[in-house]
Each structure stands twice: as C-alpha cells, then as structure tokens.
Amino acid sequence: MYVGRETEKENPMPTVDQMADIFSHAKEENLEQYVDVLNVAMDECGIDTPKRQAMFLVQCAHESGNFSRIVENLNYSTAERLRAIFRSFTR
Q1: What is the distance between the alpha carbons of residues 81 and 16, in angstroms, rounded to a whole number?
Q2: 38 CB contacts (<8 Å, ≥6 apart)?
Q3: Residue 17 and residue 28: Cα distance in Å, rounded?
Q4: Cα 54 from Cα 22, distance rounded (Å)
Q5: pTM listed for this prediction
Q6: Domain residue extents for the chain
C-alpha cells in the first residue's frame, strides 16, 4: 500500500506484512483475521485510492482497538445509558 497522491487508482490491497508495519502494536494473528475481509470491503465500497485506504484502515484500527477486538462490546451499565449514548439512532 502506497500513501501518495489522491489521483492514483488501482492501488494494490495491503498484505498482512504491510499492515503489521503500519499498525506495529497490532498482533499479527489478528491482522491475519482482518486483512482479507478489509480488502474485500475496500474493493466492494470503492475505497480505491491510497488516501481513502489509509483513512479507512486507520478508522478500522481505532474502532477495533488496533485490531484486537472483532465483536462490539455492548456492556453498558443500564438500558438508559445505552439509549443516552446512541440517542441519535433511536429517534
């Protein structure tokens, strides 16, 4: 994966080794679980420039605790707290 000019198209999808270099705190076995799924998602959603790929992968790393979590943690103290956090989705 090359992060360069936005106009570059047909960017190759990242490999496990490339992602391990970029996300140095991520465990390689976790990256192995993610890389194929992420590449399919990027292909299907038209995330096809280096800048878009970089932004997508960084957001995925952030949301997953640097690729350490695969399942969303829904441990909220109460149902009211859950509704307060996700208020915009319950209207």
Answers
A1: 38
A2: 14, 56, 57, 60
A3: 8
A4: 10
A5: 0.69
A6: 16-89
